[in-house]
User: Which sequence fits this backbone?
């Protein structure tokens, strides 16, 4: 079969622990567990859009550009109809969400580079979007809001696990795009809480699991909340928190909040 340069999922076998969570995030059912590791069923079944990224709690997946078999949309549908017919509609909805329903199955990298950026299929985390601001309502000038941050540092890699501000605190684990999208971030999310910030797509998810586990075991944290963006890969922060909470053995309230891109 002819190969071409295109984007495709790469699995780090050294990191993969065979949890299988990535399989639930793949609309093509292109991933399977083989000898305790996640593997691609076939190169041509991976569309390279990275819907599975946010489902891997240890960061064993990434999207790279490689020489690979062309994406076979018809083959994917045939594969799903035989192995998981309930996923056919999910697969088609996934393609529509990425603007691929009317696109050819094979899109050479050279063509993508020459195309208008807004027309490119991409993971929702990097799809370019813009919208007009809401119509402003004339109101008396309101006082400026104050910062509710009561600690430093806030980046998850940098916070000390046994920091005094974690003792007896309600901990909020926040995806780092959230404060830009949610206008009432200080009042609604961090007021009265300890906070740790990270990006599940660009950072080492396994290191994040270890760090949150350390915080939970070394500090008397009362509750844990995860606040993440609506894009699929951002949900990886939820899995980081879920796995860390399980590893810590703590039985504390746990909740999650998803923020829309428009806030």
Assistant:
């Amino acid at each position: 079969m002819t190969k071409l340069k295109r984007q495709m999922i790469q699995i780090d076998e050294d990191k993969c622990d065979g949890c299988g969570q990535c399989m639930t995030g793949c609309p093509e059912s292109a991933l399977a567990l083989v000898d305790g590791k996640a593997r691609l069923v076939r190169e041509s079944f991976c569309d390279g859009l990275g819907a599975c990224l946010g489902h891997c709690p240890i960061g064993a997946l990434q999207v790279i550009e490689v020489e690979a078999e062309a994406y076979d949309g018809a083959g994917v549908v045939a594969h799903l109809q035989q192995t998981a017919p309930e996923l056919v509609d999910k697969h088609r909805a996934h393609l529509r969400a990425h603007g691929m329903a009317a696109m050819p199955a094979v899109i050479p990298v050279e063509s993508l580079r020459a195309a208008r950026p807004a027309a490119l299929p991409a993971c929702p985390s990097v799809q370019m979007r813009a919208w007009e601001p809401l119509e402003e309502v004339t109101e008396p000038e309101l006082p400026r809001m104050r910062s509710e941050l009561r600690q430093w540092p806030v980046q998850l890699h940098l916070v000390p696990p046994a920091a005094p501000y974690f003792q007896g605190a309600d901990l909020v684990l926040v995806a780092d795009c959230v404060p830009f999208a949610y206008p009432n971030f200080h009042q609604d999310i961090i007021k009265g809480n300890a906070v740790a910030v990270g990006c599940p797509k660009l950072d080492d998810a396994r290191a994040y699991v270890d760090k949150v586990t350390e915080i939970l075991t070394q500090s008397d944290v009362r509750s844990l909340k995860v606040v993440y963006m609506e894009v699929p890969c951002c949900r990886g922060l939820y899995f980081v928190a879920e796995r860390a909470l399980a590893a810590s053995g703590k039985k504390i309230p746990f909740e999650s909040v998803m923020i829309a891109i428009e806030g």
User: Anything to note?
Assistant: The longest helix spans residues 205-218. The longest strand covers residues 3-11.
